[in-house]
Amino acid sequence: MQSLRLAGKPVNNENRRAAILDAAVVLFGERGYYGTSLQTIAAAVGMTKAGVLHHVGSKEGLLEIVLDEVYDNHNDEMRERYLAKERPLMAQMWRDVVAMNAERPEQVHMFSTLDAESIDPDHPAHQYFLERDRDTIDLMLDVPWDVPEGVNVEQLLNAGFSMMDGIQLRWLRNPESDLNELWAQCEDQLMPLPMWDGYR
Amino acid sequence: MQSLRLAGKPVNNENRRAAILDAAVVLFGERGYYGTSLQTIAAAVGMTKAGVLHHVGSKEGLLEIVLDEVYDNHNDEMRERYLAKERPLMAQMWRDVVAMNAERPEQVHMFSTLDAESIDPDHPAHQYFLERDRDTIDLMLDVPWDVPEGVNVEQLLNAGFSMMDGIQLRWLRNPESDLNELWAQCEDQLMPLPMWDGYR
What we know:
2 copies of one chain form a homodimer.
Chain A: H1 13-31, H2 38-44, H3 49-56, H4 59-71, H5 75-83, H6 90-102, H7 105-117, H8 126-141, H9 153-173, H10 179-190
InterPro entries (chains A, B): Homeodomain-like_sf (IPR009057), HTH-type_TetR-like_transc_reg (IPR050109), HTH_TetR (IPR001647), Tet_transcr_reg_TetR-rel_C_sf (IPR036271)
Keywords (chains A, B): DNA-binding, Transcription, Transcription regulation
Organism (chains A, B): Bifidobacterium bohemicum DSM 22767
């Protein structure tokens, strides 16, 4: 990975903590939680392991921070934005999520790696991902989506977020691909015309 | 993981090799390729590291075997089966794939973990997964699928296999869930009625 040292920035607590989180995102993505030591993270930011622990408490604490604080910090805002809309359309919400993720490949890489690694019930993020699968749907079910008659909103959300997981893996693996374009093709399958005419 | 020693079986080369592959599937799934040493695999089957190397050549060789020989050994047969059908329906093909995967959770776990871990361009399975994304679609495009007018078969295949990746993660994480049931809900979204009436 590229160096994440604090080149050119004032060395203070805030910058140090931010550099640790940046390094953890990249390293957890490339090597997983199991494959990344606090020592490697410390070396990447030019600190000691004790210095890293001072900022994040523990390796498990660091994992919680990069998931909760870094990766998932947009979820509530997204829900609020769609709750406020007069006519919330699911296709628009997914395009918003995809556009956001297209701008943060390293975070999506981390998410994808931890998502699979945490299938293991002993993984410290197992419960987090288990609850997240459910919470993401519940959060979005609060929004009165305008969908064609007969559509099962809960099942559509589950199917759509599953599709997004898979297409993001294909995007990350192929640096020439464009996530927004890939998703546009997915949208055509998930919300096909003419059935979804006027609803996307 | 549970012991994978050769309890009760005659100790010969074939059984030894099979035990190594079984252990590698479980350990690559739980800890990833990076997180699993040949020493751990050797210990799991009650052999020495040198003994394991005698059977599989190298750690990279073992990775290739569990992907090519163990995980992907059904692909050609599936394609042949659908090429031979008078009226091949994509919904049936996906149900067949899902029914097969529902019976092999440890292999799907391994696949999911390596799928994400190999986003890293330095990962030894990076090229394998990159080509597999493309090859799976190409293989299936040979089949003259009977689909409703206007459906883009290539995009549908890409969207459907992406959805399957995501729903399999949810299934593996939640031992109470049933992959066939989860997929039935996905199918209703991916091939909605009445558009797909008579085509699934």
